[in-house]
Give the backbone structure.
Amino acid sequence: MAAVFNPFIPSYQANPYRAYANLRAAEPVHYSATLQAWVLTGYAPCERVLRDPAAFASNPYLATSEVARALQVQRRSFPLGEVPTVLTSDPPAHIRLRSLVTRAFTPRIVEERRARIAEIADALLGAALDGAEGGAFDLVSGFAQPLPVIVIAELLGVPPEDRALFRGWSAALAGQTNLFTTPAATEAARQASRELIAYFDRALAERRRAPREDLLTALVQAEDAHSGTGSHLSHEELLAFCILLLVAGHETTTHLLANGTLALALHPAQLARLLDGATPIAQGVEELLRFDSPVQAVARVAVRDVELDGRTLHAGDTVLVMVGAANRDPARFADPDALDVTRADLHHLSFGLGPHFCLGAPLARLEAAVGFAALLRRLPALGIEGEPVRGGTFALRGLQELRVHTG
Ligand code: HEM
């Protein structure tokens, strides 16, 4: 029987890992006529594609299928939709952009937030516990959603009174990571982009007039270390990057906290290892990332004809690197469907690989380590009430609601 891949059925959303396993066993490099894209579920082909930007581009405008062209039209209809960001550019543009933003977004800047992130996590959990009804509260709305948005907003220098705006904008934009969206969802995302651009336009102008100790100021001042010409990010590049930070950094981290909490609640022996300190939380976080990755798919476009696992991919073909599937490949990870916080091989692909490796990984890791530490301190008998409500999109896997017991 020919291999099939159908991400549109409810059982896929509930648990895509079975579908990945079936597809990987039959065709780790599979062409989906429905998606008009190659779907990669084997670790080796996923790794190969991510490590080879010369053959597999990140610029979505290079894709030639009808589905891809429709997505390009949609993308173009967004303000700044054609401005390349680190995520959607290729060398040499990517090298320049990445070097500029890396100068502002350094591991030191992130590490300096540790104590503050712990404070935010503890305050959110305290408030959620105080407001709990019937001995349970929703971990997503009370903790996993607000924590990353407050952290990124504070890092950028957004005042507390504007945070609610950011939460709304971020949620509207996240819907765009789905394969197909409704016209209403697309319009909501477009409106959110317009409002975000107007917001950052004002905020960046203020930083130019009066520099502050924040990431927005650092970005304005970021000089092009690579070319040595002293050139700065253009105003449009700056705006596009600010929006990318919000989109890339918010929902992903929310999903890590929510998926990870659910996984630990369902695996008490693993939870116990973290609780008694037998396994450091940072190590546990890596296994949670592998086990139920917030990012399930990243896209590339073949720029020339390429052989992959005996199949020929043609120039212009869309390639979906299913990192969530690669993380469960038995050829790479022993007993891949088991959650094992003591696992020594932590080379999951949840942050990608190669030149586009997640720029925010140090921040995401810090938020998760500090966030789970606070959660386990407050709720050592972590337990779930009722059925978790799945959320997320094709590319992002997460939860919309996860009720946890207070005691
Ligand atoms: C658990 C949380 C996160 C996960 C799972 C995640 C995952 C990823 C993945 C898979 C990529 C690679 C995309 C590709 O190869 O096309 C990526 C890139 C990126 N991420 Fe994250 N991310 C997370 C958190 C964050 C945070 C907190 C930020 C920033 C505040 C961030 C900013 C970025 C940026 C700017 C890129 C583009 C880098 C480039 O293309 O050079 N991410 N992320």
Remarks:
- The mean pLDDT is 92.
- The longest strand covers residues 298-302.
- DSSP finds 18 helices and eleven strands in the chain.
